[in-house]
Amino acid sequence: MVNSSNPVPILILMGTAGCGKTSVAEQIQQLLHCEYIEGDALHPEANVLKMSKGEPLNDDDRWPWLRVIRDTLQEKAKDLYSQDNNQSERAIVLTCSSLRKVYRDIMREVSTEYASVTFVYLKGTQELLQERIGGRKNHFMGAKMLESQLATLEVPDETQEQVIVADIRKDPLTLAKWIVEEAHQRKIISFAV
């Protein structure tokens, strides 16, 4: 019997460049066999070009992109809503820096009838983030932009936002398993791996 009374859990992996959003999200997607959306893939070409030149985005660049993310989450959640609550496939994982609360607020505008949004803050030291960025190839985010992101970052407040804070010193698979277990313990998701 299909029970669609619970909203679809959406886990938004957030943090600065180098925190492992994509690596951890891919591991969560493999564990849950759920929908995975790379937020950067939804950037308009003008944003990608700007970032590839080392220019930080401004809010006028971000607002339309964040609304596309919100609308995409809404559409995917509506599609998954009628599936059995206990199926791990009935979840969405999205990656998006979500550095400021106002950006996260836009993504939380997804209808609570269909979805429950939880941010997963991938937290690391500036030194570790810098080291990881330095080792990247073929990514539009340059190492010099980390300082700008850290200056912009508004660390989510667990008393005001539904957030899981995850220490990025763990390898991606271990961290993904911990996040899924933490989400299960907090009753954000109804299934464990």
Brief description of this entry?
By secondary structure, the chain is of the alpha/beta class. The chain has seven helices and five strands; from the N terminus they run E-H-E-H-H-E-H-E-H-H-E-H. The longest helix has 22 residues.
Model description:
By secondary structure, this protein is of the alpha/beta class. It has helices at 21-32, 45-52, 59-80, 101-107, 126-134, 146-152, 172-185, and strands spanning 8-14, 35-38, 92-95, 115-123, 163-167. Strands 2-3-1-4-5 form a five-stranded parallel sheet. Helix 1 (21-32) crosses helix 7. The mean pLDDT is 90.
Can you lay out the helices and strands and say which pair or pack?
Layout: E1 8-14, H1 21-32, E2 35-38, H2 45-52, H3 59-80, E3 92-95, H4 101-107, E4 115-123, H5 126-134, H6 146-152, E5 163-167, H7 172-185
Parallel strand pairs: 1-3, 1-4, 2-3, 4-5
Helix pairs in contact: 1-7
Number of helices: 7
Q: How can the largest sheet be summarized?
A: 5 strands, parallel
Strand order of the largest sheet: 2-3-1-4-5
> How would you spell out the order of helices and strands?
EHEHHEHEHHEH
Low-pLDDT residue spans: none
The computed structural class is alpha/beta
| Beta-strand fraction estimate | 15-25%
Mean pLDDT: 90
Helix content: 40-55%
Tertiary shape: globular
What kind of oligomer do you see?
A: single chain
Number of strands: 5
